[in-house]
Specification:
It contains eleven helices and seven strands. It is α/β, with parallel strands linked by helices and 247 residues long. It has one domain. α1 runs parallel beside α6. The protein is globular, with a radius of gyration of 17 Å.
Amino acid sequence: MHGVAFSGADSAGAPKIRHVWRAWPGASPILGSEKLDRNGLRRRIEESTRDGLSHLWRIDTPLSIAREHLAAQGVAEEWNAIAAWMASFPSARDWRRAMRTTDRKELRRACDRARSTPLAPTNLRLFKKTWALIAEVAHPLASKGVRIEPCTGDNNARVAICESNTASTLDTAEIPSTGYRGAGNAAVSRRESILTWLRTRGVGIGAELAQLAVDDTEGDILDALILMSDPVCTVTPDVAAFESWIY
């Protein structure tokens, strides 16, 4: 299983995406940690289709947008159509500009409401990541047989990408989902307590990686590690087939 903190959508190509992985299911240690750019992440996922193993890639960024936005733009309620439409724009800003010609609201999806996510996919702080993940990573990989859970691809595919959300993951575990980013003793203490919780969930985190996570004031390493906890699996509504779902 892979945890990906998808940062750097506006970083001019700098490798700011954090990627960690471990054997799953069951308790196991973190096997590796790295920083990637978007092209590097796409290559890593594509490489995982050739090693004969099963891979679940959990990424902390929306994999679709709200049904109401699709209706306003005349886009079919089908994930491949949504991804192709988003990829037709040269940049996230061009896509958002087109969206705002019909509706300036930041609409939440069924999964956002169900999992109480802090931001809608089209929020000013999130839209670049939403566009970059769908248009530049997930869309080309889906065309190569990678499953976008639960939207498209073979149910028996060995490699799948699913949407996750660190705040929702912590909230479900009844752990405060704020206060762990930034400097200061309080934020450091919050990062340390989340690492302790992860270890109780069977995520083995070595001393060196743990210290990096504690020292990372932006919280990206910890965000990736949070996605090493077990995903929340539920029966999904029909709308999840094109709006995505959060695991």
